[in-house]
Sequence to fold (505 residues):
Amino acid sequence: MSVVWPAVRLQFQLLRTSNDYLLELVRAPILGLVLLALAAYHDRPDLVPNAVVAPVMVALWGTGLLAAGELIDVDRELGLLEPLIATPAPFPSLLLSRVAATSALNGVVLAEVWLVAAATGAPISVRHPLVFVGALVVTAFAMVAASLLMATLFLATRTALPFQNSLTYPLLVLGGVFVPVDSLPGWLQPLGRLVFLSWSSDLLRASLRPEPVAQPLARMGVVIGLGGIALGIGLLVLRRVLRRVRADGSLRLT
Amino acid sequence: MTHPAVLTENLTRVYAARRSATTVTALDSVSLRIEHGEVHGLLGPNGAGKSTLMKLLSTVLLPTSGRAEVCGHDVVTATKAVRPLISVVFGGERGLYPRLSARQNLMYWAALYGVCGRVAATRVEELLDRFDLRDRASDRVETYSAGMRQRLHLARGLIGNPRVLLLDEPTNALDPAAALRLRQTITEIAAQGRTILIATHDMHEAEHICDRVSLIDHGRLIATESPHALVTRVQVPTLEDAYLSLVGPSS
Fold:
């Protein structure tokens, strides 16, 4: 039995009715415009890849975090979690499918930011298409995996909002979304390298620059590895959390 | 040997308070046998343990001790076998995506029960017809009346073709006409041979649609009989009088 497509379809239907998600489609191009304006003002064409990648990664992380929290919080608030758990459908597959559907929204964000860059005359082009596409694919995988892990955390707690708020900007900084992790204080860099966003951001920026990309496969492998670890932990913890909430009766609590 | 639709033996559920050592026994050694095709009412005051029993049978809650089976499958050790056989419908506003249409909601729930493609589409349309929702099937659920939502809840409960339907206060918050209509629908569903376990405060409802009722108070099973037998035994004119006599007006 596959619940993947029905869950993806449901998520798209819900996305169309949710202003929170659609807000990213407005926020990302504006952020792109601001960053591109800064690069132009300081006459730093070398920063254009940063200005294009950052809004996409911010949207990616934001929608992933929002989806992870909303899937649990909203379903719990609507009294859906209990009947959902009582169906034969595998709950992890439902979560993964819905988070993946949400992350697909970032394809639109990427197109928007690219259009903004083109409209403002920013010198931007994909210099290494295979690396670019590969980085997008492995990043999407890692984001879905990270979202599952966070959704599990939100399921175990009574509300997702405090976690969502506290995880947004620290992870964007540690993930080298605005500036590469190499530019962070030395003591922060090892921590940043544990966040898949840092590898993804570096790879995407590198794919937009003319210089050859060093060890692209190995770096993609790291993103896959970090995503795989998050997925493994997420699935393991989800199984335990589901058992725990059934044991302590906290499934319905908000 | 044929297994009953629902069987519980000394089923007990104790809730522990999060920040203190106190515990609450929501269900206390309940033993119950419900045969296939039976409409069984669970009667009791708020907090009596009716919803807890529903949750235990629907596998979303684990018992503290004792055991429960649905069609011969243990609800703790054989959840994969139990879940396709049961469906749970909670009353009130909860349990549907309000911003989606009835059709969208039903198609999703169909998939969760492994019903996909044309089979799902056909079954959804049948249920929309049966519950008189077709005219508004494409409208958002948030625009529905309480009666329409409750009919949609029932349709959702039937989308997976369950053998055992658990209804938790399905006529709660409905006006008398809508409640009457829903009771008729429940009777029709039961006539198809499904087992229905219905938790309700409405004695009139229980008297008219239930083959047998179980009275629960403070987690303990007080009596399990047909409404008529209960009324006769307690020697009162109505089930409500029997309930008040056994459970007490203070509850």
Notes: Chain B touches chain A through 38 residues (CB under 8 Å).
